Amino acid sequence: MTERSEGPRFAPDLLTEMFQNPLDPGYADAAARRAAEGPKPRWSRVTSGGFRLLVLVAIGLLFAVAYRHVVAGESESSRAHAGLVDEARGAQARTDDLQGQADALRDEVAALRAEALGAGSGELRALREREAATGLAKVTGDGVIVTVSDAAPQVDPTTGKQVTPEGGRVLDKDLQEVANGLWAAGAEAVAVNGQRLTATSTIRTAGSAILVDFRPVTSPYQVTAIGPDDMLDRFLAGPAAALLRGLKTQYGIDFATSRRDDLILPAAGTDIPLRFARPDVSPSPTPTGGG
């Protein structure tokens, strides 16, 4: 009966193997083949070197072309962005000019109406009061200013640029809360960054911008209100001020309030479309004849 020889129970240690056979088997085979065949001919070495040089030159050309395309793309993108910015500024300037013309025409109409109705007539006085209440006329008086601004920017450790921290940007709903809080506190007229609010005004977000009646406003946002003397105290005791305090504590959004005398709020930029109730035109029952 033949006895089988058992192999080692454990594989050789890796470090021991490296010290015993420091040369990789592939290198050993290549060295043996070179010793047996002799050195490569000169033309083969020159051809191999030329091929490597050609590959390196081609790779360099590819990198150069790619770099030029990237630089050209950035330049074209910058020019397109600058063109859009100029176009937006031009459109804003034209809008402001048209708004100025509309205000001048509104003043002219008001003067002609006062001349027709009489400067001291009760009808003219009642009409002006209604216009002031609806936002169609400029108003003056004592009131308050609530200023709300985005949180202070922080330096991004990755890019090194200043960015607004997450949650530190004022939203459209925040300005809605402030405006509604002032109305609830007794405000008679409210404006956001000079944009007069009416019964049909909207405060909405478009991208990263806030629009008040489709006109952009930027931080810091000044919500101005004309109203009774206790309006600021009532506002600070209401839910809108509590919301602002929470935003300041949690996200760093800043707000401040102040009382002001002789505030001037402009008229609304656009006319308010009038809506009328319509009478019921259903036929009434035919009365019965009497004796």
UniProtKB/TrEMBL annotation:
Keywords: Coiled coil, Membrane, Transmembrane, Transmembrane helix. The chain crosses the membrane at residues 50-70. It comes from the Bacteria. Gene3D superfamilies: Protein of unknown function DUF881 (3.30.70.1880). Signal peptide: none annotated. InterPro entries: DUF881 (IPR010273). Residues 88-115 form a coiled coil. The keyword Repeat does not apply. Belongs to the UPF0749 family. This is DUF881 domain-containing protein.
